[in-house]
Amino acid sequence: MAGPTGRGNSLGAALNDLLRSQVTPRHRLSSYNAKHWHAQLSQLTATHRGQQALEDAGLHVTTKTLINWLSDAEYNIRRSYRDLIHTAYENTAVVPADPLPDHIKRGQYEISGIVKTGDDERERGNRRAAPLRIDGSRGNWDAIEELWLAGELTDDDFEDHFIDDVIVEDIGEGTDGWEFPGASYSVEVR
């Protein structure tokens, strides 16, 4: 039975495609695009999550003060209050990433595309050669997960860490390290 598959123009792009098909990445809510403090405050006070973000940011004012601010967009509030509102707004606008699921960290990977180690370079995952098989459960996923949760897992970073922390941990360094110099990859996890 085929498992989830990612495709891309590099190993890292295919890995990221696979991961994004399985879990939600850190992202910004498209509805959070207000620039002025008054519009941000209006949006924040409309939800419990927004009100909690204001409190977490350290904005502690009376209900009467909030009503005064909300009733007049030209109300002159201190810069420190505007900064707290902006901080709460930015924190609420970002949705954290889901953690990496166990089936990703413990999965059996099949990599198709050009694989090179030393002088040996060949197309894997076609009629002539099996895909490169990697046991993800032997890998160290900490750096990958840290970058993922921070919203900073680029294709290049994913490829580098997958090679160093997953492939090498499973099957070793190869002849002279592992390279994936092709222009098209697919990665399946089972």
Keyword list:
190 residues, alpha+beta, five-stranded antiparallel sheet, elongated
List the SSEs and their pairings.
Layout: E1 5-8, H1 11-22, E2 27-28, H2 37-45, H3 48-57, H4 63-71, H5 79-93, E3 94-95, H6 102-105, E4 108-117, E5 120-124, E6 132-135, H7 142-149, H8 155-171, E7 185-189
Antiparallel strand pairs: 1-7, 2-3, 4-5, 4-6, 4-7
What report would you give on this structure?
This protein has two domains: 5-26 and 98-189, no CATH class; 27-95, no CATH class. The protein is α+β, with helices and mostly antiparallel strands and 190 residues long. The strands form two sheets. Strands 1, 4, 5, 6 and 7 form a five-stranded antiparallel sheet that branches. A two-stranded antiparallel sheet has the order 2-3. The model has no long low-confidence stretch (mean pLDDT 94). The radius of gyration is 23 Å and the shape is elongated. The longest helix is centred in the C-terminal third of the chain and has 17 residues, at 155-171. It has helices spanning 11-22, 37-45, 48-57, 63-71, 79-93, 102-105, 142-149, 155-171; strands at 5-8, 27-28, 94-95, 108-117, 120-124, 132-135, 185-189.
